[in-house]
Amino acid sequence: MCACSQNARKCGIKMLFYREAIISEAFVDLQMIQISQDAIKDLVAEEGVTDNELEVLVLALNGKLPAEIKTILGRQSENAVQKTLSRIYTKFRIPGAGPGKLSKLQNILLNRLQAKQGKRKVLIVWAGSNSKQQAEKIRDVLFKHPQIAAHILDINENLSPAWLAKTEQLISDIDFGILCLPKERIEHAWVNFLIGFFSAKLQNFRLLSFNENLKLETPIHYPSIDITDKNNLVCLLHEIIGGDIEEAKDWINYKLSNSEWVKKLLEEESNSATQPEPPTNGTILTTLEPKLASNYYYQKNKIFQQVINNDIGNIDQRISSLVANGLIYKMPLELYPRHLTALQQKHQVRVKAVAIVDGVESFWASDQGDEIAKTANPESERLFVFSNESDFQKSYHFLLKHASCYKVFVTTKEIYQPYAQEFSLRDIPNSWNMKSLDSHLGTLATLPTIEYAIIESTDAKNQLIVWYDQDSFKESWSTRLANFSPLVDEIAQYKIILSDFLARASRNNEKVHQITWQNSSQKIKIGKPLEQIVAQKFEQIRDNLFRKSPNECLKYPNELLKDLQKVRNDLKRLDNKDDVIEKALEIVRERLNSQTAAIFLFSKDGCLHRQKILGVDANGHEIDDQWFADETYEPGESFTGKAAIPSEDSFGKPYSANDLSEIRLDTKSKEKYSEKLGGIYSAITVPLDGQHKTFGVLEVINKFDPFRKRTIQNSGFSQEEIHWLSTIGLSVASAISNLRKKLQIQLLGDLSDSLVGSCNNTSGTQDAYRSVVQRLISENTAFEVCILRVKNAKGFLEVVDKAGVDRIIWNKRFDEPRSNEDGLVGNAMSIKKSVIIQGINNQNIKEFKNQDWIRLNEFKSFGCFPLIYKAEVVGAISLYTGYEYDFHPGCQEFLKRVSSLVAAFIGRVKESEAVNWVVNDLHNFPAHSTDLLQLKEEELREQLYVVQKHCDTIRQILGETFGHSKEPHSFQDSEEFPQKIATKYYS
Questions:
Q1: Secondary structure (3-state) at 178
Q2: Which helix (H) or strand (E) holds 790?
Q3: Rounded to whole angstroms, what are the CA distances from 168 to 18, 174, 202, 472, 479?
Q4: Strand locations in 516-664, DSSP E?
Q5: What SS3 class is residue 650?
Q6: Cβ partners under 8 Å of residue 868, min gap 6
Q7: Which segment of 301-315, 332-346, 451-465, 769-783 scores lowest on mean pLDDT?
Q8: What 3-state class would DSSP assign to 57?
Q9: Is 822 exposed, middle or buried (0-12, 13-18, 19+ CB in 10 A)?
Q10: What are 802's strand-pairing partners?
Q11: Does residue 720 contact residue 677 with C-beta atoms inside 8 Å?
Q12: How do residues 262-296 score in pLDDT, each as one tens digit?
């Protein structure tokens, strides 16, 4: 490896140095990159790394220790260097401590560099018995490099037009091509074509050999690279990735240091070289050569001769393969439509087939597809399987044409694939004697298959099964061959697949439709109205197959928006929380095909309690809501509680997992769910957010196949489904929040009615106090204890009533009157503002008067709200919770309204008592029977003084009760009480 430059600010730097041989390969594979300081500066620009920090970072990435960096840059100390690095790590949001932080930063920068530069795309082509292994080793060992993205392409020795077209399209985006060619195939004629083909299409193309003495004895002489020489490998890698050749040398040395793969490949190459080579001329060519000898151009024009020989050779190989196993005849897939049309024309064969329309059978919308339709037996049946709506839409005309000639059915890949997989996997030991099958078919057979055709004569005495080497559901760059075989037993089984699927689909009301428009191709020409009718029916089928599918709506923004709006409106119409929850769970299960859906809400203990669950157990039975009825989680506990962990904004976040085996779950919950559901595999949980905080979660478990009524173990929830559930969670939360607000308004209304009724009945004052405390600990609030205090004649707040939930123990509590200097209640009374303690701990508990009682009941939060009437504190409400409750703005607004109602009631009672005293006092004032006009002046003055004194006393009492005459006497003139309260109490 090259040494670092003395001036680290200007030189290229090494990223991820070699440490020792013990360093893991995954780590070492990221080492061999050189980038300049300017490139580093560009990579860290978005984090705002300063120039001073950049100097330290470059040296650290260059492998310098803090002591060396201090000396090079002239910094004050090693500690100063460490602090600079810490600031850099903080900017990149890298937690933790130790040398691992630098490694994490290196990976981040490397990923960014690769994203900017892009990896070199290398195509590795192979042919021959050993070449695939050679290609895989080159890809997985030598080229497993962070700057290389290597892919392997299998060669179709027939060089079919379809393979050539697909390959040409593929290599249009390739930077470098490599052909691995063993000696056993070096004399084959198609090698010349491949070399010319790739060298013409790729600017950078190399031929690799595993034999130092390999010489090409073919018309095209192309230099090959002998990779038995390590120096050649170094040059090849350097040619691909560029940079310093020492980098490539270090990489190859590392990869070859502990590997015997090259030696093994060379041994296999040597062994293969001793095997007899296949004859260059097959039976057909040998037979035809005497006849071709008379053709002048065949004899004189080598290229013309090669074309003919290639075609004959392809047929010869297929015949040889048939002779070898006796059961299968293969041909390129693109030839299949022509042969099928010929069979239908000459023998009027019936066809029962499954055709997956996804680009492999691309001939359906072409002239070849039209010929198949025209020549089809009316008794034929074909199920067209579509992967997406776009393909279905494009198939409009050819489906109508085929439907006018024979029975045509359509469905989606989503519907058909589970059934096809079930068939292809079930009863293999019994239905398919695999050893026998292998002995008859050889390694070329791929039954069971999910895409096939049964071709039979009208008397059913002659039958063929046709299938592909690889089904269309799988992605492959390899060529596809159509296999024809008269396997009677297998044909008998495959014949029932289509009928069985259509019968099951009809029985379970699945989305499979028959296109029944007879002679459609002719009728469409009759007129526009009829064409519109056909189009309308086709659109209805399309909508039923795709746009109305629960999962498909997730893929179309417009349909998704409509779906979400409908869900929101459906929930808004409900006026009961239980109805909202049940409806929401029904919608979620239907859309996501989940085995269960459940909603959990926070209770007074601060834990998530399950409100309802919908789903089916392992036997397909509905889960009763009483099962695991005590299911409860704390925030962050198990999987359910993770979405309820409050972040900086006080709200939770969605959480998902498609492999629950990697998630730490509550033991009891895991056992119960695993037993009930037959296993737990995937899940999503999303928060239910109110205006100020998360108040619950919505959870789904296991992807579920609604048709086979069983869990899909190896299929989790997609990102679209996670996003959909998160959005639905907002609608569910909004509906529940609105109902909660209605309940609060109802609670305020009930409390108002209760207090007004008690105002009109002075003997009901204690009942009014009881109604206040009971309502504040109801199920619709977070409070476990409510204590109501009212100011007495001496100016102290004394307890007039209190209430608590069932768990509360009242021992060790003392309810002595409180002055404005007594504890937290006195503080609220003194400052005339609420006093809130969100988390009661060992420090702030000293501020309470009943510390032992608080510890006994394990209260976590407290709030005291003064009751203010006409600027005077007339009482206080104290509230306790069983968990850390933040008394959010919405809660405080609600309690402010309650306090206003209660304060108005207490003030009204106080005023009523004062008025009653005055009335009684006036009533008891002695009557003056003496004629005041006959009194002497002094006696008259004495009598008037007594009256004046009594009036002053009454005026003072009224003033203290109702305030000064200039002060407002009605609530509508006071800022403390809303007009509604004034109207409520003084109407």
A1: strand
A2: strand 785-791
A3: 40, 10, 10, 20, 13
A4: 594-602, 608-615, 632-633, 655-657
A5: coil
A6: 832, 874, 899, 903, 976
A7: 301-315
A8: helix
A9: middle
A10: 787
A11: no
A12: 666 655 555 544 433 344 456 777 778 788 888 88
DSSP reduced 3-state for 472: coil
Rounded CA separation 641/636 (Å) = 4
Alpha-carbon distance of 786 to 862, in angstroms, equals: 10
Token readout for 563 is: 């779906």
Over its C-alpha atoms, the chain yields an Rg (Å, rounded) of: 43
973 exposure class (CB count in 10 Å sphere: 0-12, 13-18, 19+): exposed
Distance CA 329, CA 323 (A): 9
Take residue 288 and report the two structure tokens written for it: 């035809």
pLDDT in tens, 175-192: 888 887 665 555 565 677
Tell me the two tokens of residue 187. 């004399």
Distance CA 959, CA 952 (A): 10
pLDDT computed for residue 984 by the predictor: 36
Encoding tokens for residue 960? 């203290």
Q: Which one-letter DSSP state was computed for residue 138?
A: I
Helical packing angle, 283-292 and 302-325, nearest 10°: 150
Query: DSSP for 479-532?
Result: --EEEEE--HHHHHHHHHHHHHHHHHHHHTT-S-EEE--TTHHHHTTT-HHHHH
444-457 exposure pattern, b = at least 16 Cβ within 10 A, e = fewer = ebebbbbbbbbbbe
- Is residue 94 classed as helix, strand or coil in its secondary structure? coil
* Burial environment of residue 143 by CB neighbours within 10 A (0 to 12, 13 to 18, 19 or more): buried
Average pLDDT of span 601-617: 93
Q: What is the rounded average pLDDT of the residues 513-539?
A: 62
Name the token pair of 841: 């701990």
Strand blocks (E) in 792-895: 797-804, 835-837, 861-869, 872-881
8 near 72, Cβ under 8 Å?
yes
* DSSP letter string, 771-789: HHHHHTTSTTSS-SEEEEE
Alpha-carbon gap, residue 136 to 143, rounded angstroms: 10
Determine the residue type at 75.
R
Q: Hey, what are 482's tokens?
A: 């159509």
Residues near 832 by beta carbon (within 8 Å), at least 6 away in sequence: 866, 868, 873
Q: Contacts by 263-266 with C-beta closer than 8 Å and gap 24+?
A: 265/130, 265/133, 265/134, 265/137, 265/210, 266/210, 266/228
Distance of CA 975 to the CA centre of its chain: 51
Query: Between residues 267 and 646, which one has the greater pLDDT?
Result: 646
Neighbours of 362 (CB within 10 A): 14
Beta-bridge mates of residue 152: 124
Q: How many residues does the chain have?
A: 987
Q: Which residues touch 621 (CB under 8 Å, ≥6 apart)?
A: none
Which helix (H) or strand (E) is 725 found in, with range? helix 719-759
The answer to whether the beta carbons of residues 767 and 758 sit under 8 Å apart is yes
| Distance set, CA 139 to CA 113, 122, 126, 203, 628 (Å) | 22, 9, 12, 20, 52
The C-alpha atoms of residue 827 and residue 862 are separated, in whole angstroms, by 13
Q: DSSP label at 5?
A: P
Which amino acid type is present at position 284?
A: I
pLDDT reading at 33 higher than 80: no
Which residues are within 8 A (CB) of 220 and not within 5 positions of it... i.e. 6 or more apart? 192, 195, 196
User: Amino acid identity, residue 724?
Assistant: W
The whole-angstrom separation of Cα 588 and Cα 728 is 8
Determine the pLDDT at residue 434. Answer: 37
CA dihedral 841, 843, 845, 847 (to 10 degrees): -150
Spatial distance between the Cα atoms of 16 and 233, rounded to a whole number of angstroms: 22
- Contacts for 79-82 with beta carbons within 8 Å, 24 or more apart? 81/56
Contacts of 959 (CB under 8 A, 6+ apart): 965
532 beta partners: none
Distance separating alpha carbons of residues 446 and 470, to the nearest angstrom: 7
